[in-house]
Structure formats: C-alpha cells, structure tokens
Amino acid sequence: MSSNSTGIRIPINLHKRLESYIAETHSTKTEVILNALAQYLGAAEEVPLSQRMAALEAQVLELKVLVKNPQIKA
Q: What is the pLDDT of residues 10-33, one digit of tens each?
C-alpha cells in the first residue's frame, strides 16, 4: 500500500493523552492516528490487516490492565 505524509498540529492536552495511550499500549503514533482516522471516516476495512491486528492487541492489553486494576479509569 502506498502512503502519503501529512503533518498536523494538535493541542498540547490531546498530545499528552496520545503519548500516554502509546506508552500504555506499546503502539506507535502512526498506528494510533491511522486507526483513529480510519474509524472516524468509516474506512477501518482499508487499514492493512497487520495494523488492525496490532490495534486490537493494544486494546486487549489495555483491557487486561483495566481488569487487573479496576481503580484505573479508561
């Protein structure tokens, strides 16, 4: 799949949340942003299967953390 590069500016608080999510799920910024954008646009099926699997694995890991530590807010 070919790709383009796009630069964006995001608010500091949103960037901090992105960084926290990446640290918790061991994902990359590209994976998180690509999956979020595809989901928002209703085009999740266009994301390569390997990236969709990585996103699902990250979500499972996040759920495991929440189950083990119910006091943590999602």
A: 999 999 999 998 888 788 898 889
